[in-house]
Amino acid sequence: MKKPLPQLLALGLFFLGIAAAPAQGQGTQDPIIWGADKEGGGPYLFIGPEGGLIGYELEIIQALEKQLNRKIEFRQYDFASLIPGLSKGDIAIAMNGLEITPERRSQVLFTRPYYIYRQQLVARKDEKRFDSYKASLKVPGLKYGTMESTAAERLLRQDGIDPATYPAPTEAYRELALGRIDAVVLDLPMATFYAKKDPKLTFLSEPFAPGEYAIALAKNHETLRGDLNLAIGNLIASGQLKAILEKWDLWDDAQAGLANEDGMGGLTVQDQSWNLSSYLPMLLKGTAVTIALTLCSFALAVGLGLPLALIRVYGPAPLKFLAICHIEFFRGIPVYILLLLVYFGLPELWSVLNLPPFVAAVIGLGLNYSAYEAEIYRSALQSVPAGQWEAALSLGMDRVKAFRRIILPQAFKVALPPMTGDLVALFKDTSIASAISLVELNKQYQILAKSSNKFMEIGLMTALIYLVLSVPLGWLSRRLEETWGHGDEN
Q1: Angle between the 276-314 and 357-383 helix axes, to the nearest 10 degrees?
Q2: What ranges in 123-221 are assigned the alpha helix state H?
Q3: d(CA 421, CA 428)
Q4: What is the pLDDT, as a whole number, of residue 481?
Q5: Residues 6 or more apart from 294 whose CB is under 8 A from it?
Q6: Who's near 443: CB < 8 A, 6+ residues apart?
Q7: What's the gap between Cα 361 and its chain centre?
Q8: Are strands 183-187 and 164-166 parallel, antiparallel or unpaired?
Q9: Chain segment 144-189, per-residue pLDDT in tens
Q10: Alpha-carbon torsion, ordered 193, 198, 202, 206, to 10 deg
């Protein structure tokens, strides 16, 4: 017997509803997007020997998943951009050794603390000038290193120190071991994980300046914060949090404060006030470094590029082959990788090549741009008609004099416009030097913007400085191209 159409429709909708209904447990709600930075390394979150993610914060997240009965998905996010990422909505929570500071409290919500950290001063084992952080402040000219956008950086700046900042602790401790800096101040978990086992480094005095790690959320996530607070409290009460911290050698007497929902109830690192008058001098200081780096790198590029071009056009076959290898090698390698190789790689091969950041940046950028300059000069030389050689030689000039007086001036006119364009490009590419802790204009912008969270205001000021310096060069390049770009026609 056929069922009436309304009954069939109702039955179909019933089974469709069952199929569309979400399963019970994890997945009944949208996953929580957790932002953290793998580059920060251990013991927080890092890639283990087998290729997967490991770290004590990952284990805390996994425990929180069970407490919340809700999936938490990891998203790679730059550590210094975690707070802006919350405000932007890219991530729902940020948990990555994120210290509670007054300034961050004004921007985001924090859960109850899950770890009480302290700062640890690390120096080389042969250090005799100081034996504690307070003593180090009395030694003139010391170079400190730390990780950017951390409480350690804030503490150092609060004490009148302008430290070298790095995106990861590994780089800071490497610099210390190589003797490029004198001391590193970082949170105790990082010091324990990376520096404690290094035979060249040692802890000086007891840890100091306690603070708290907590999970950060956007201001409109009050409900989620309440759920997380309850879940963290359960992990503390059940002993699960202690077990995780003990597994990673992080449990100590300071963690007794976690039993209080508000943690220590106070902070040792004070907030800083930022205003326009404090930005501009620092940006101008970075600008001076950028200009010096541009000029020195371009001088090296021109000094190498012209001989390479001459060899390619006029040299014997073996030298031509070597010149081509140089050009293709340095043109094919990203300048970022080249800077890391020059700055971090060469000292491992030969300690004499332990170069300062500025020198390493000049060499890296100069070698990279020398390949491009060589091709510009080669093209310019080959653009000079062969009849110019014949005319010069017929006047009794030898080949050297003919090249210097007749060929080179004409080739220079052709090469000058693209050379000016390369100078503009190099000026902007100097921002890559921030990868080796050189505080040029771009790095200074990152430090100021991430410390004050005034990305728009400081970004506009920085962009204006770049424009003031690069636009005239761009105009000059176009003008030269209009005037000389067609060779003898003008």
Answers
A1: 40
A2: 133-136, 151-158, 169-178, 188-190
A3: 11
A4: 66
A5: 423, 426, 427, 430
A6: 286, 431, 433, 434, 437
A7: 15
A8: unpaired
A9: 999 887 889 989 988 999 899 888 888 899 999 989 999 999 999 9
A10: 10
What is the pLDDT, as a whole number, of residue 310?
Answer: 92
- Tell me which residue of 280, 257, 271, 298 sits closest to 423, measured CA to CA: 298
**What are the pLDDT digits (tens) for 457-478?**
888 888 999 888 888 877 876 7
Closest CA to 211 of 110, 74, 326, 84: 110
Q: What are phi and psi for residue 125, nearest 5 degrees?
A: -65, -25
Distance separating alpha carbons of residues 66 and 63, to the nearest angstrom: 5
Domains defined along the chain, listed by start: 28-114+214-271 (3.40.190.10), 116-211 (3.40.190.10), 276-489 (1.10.3720.10)
- Strand 144-147 to 183-187 pairing: parallel
Residues 6 or more apart in contact with residue 43 via CB below 8 angstroms:
55, 56, 189, 190, 192, 193, 248, 249, 250
β-strand partners of 34? 74, 93
DSSP string over 432-478: GGGGGT---HHHHHHHHHHHH--HHHHHHHHHHHHHHHHHHHHHHHH
pLDDT in tens, 116-134: 999 999 999 999 999 999 9
CB 273 within 8 A of CB 123: no
CA distance 90 to 328: 40
**Among 129-133, 264-268, 273-277, 387-391, which is the least confidently predicted range?**
264-268
CA distances from 208 to 59, 203, 248, 254, 402 (A): 27, 12, 20, 11, 72
The pTM (predicted TM-score) of the whole model is 0.69
> Residue 431 carries which DSSP code?
G
Residue 224 has pLDDT above 80, yes or no: yes
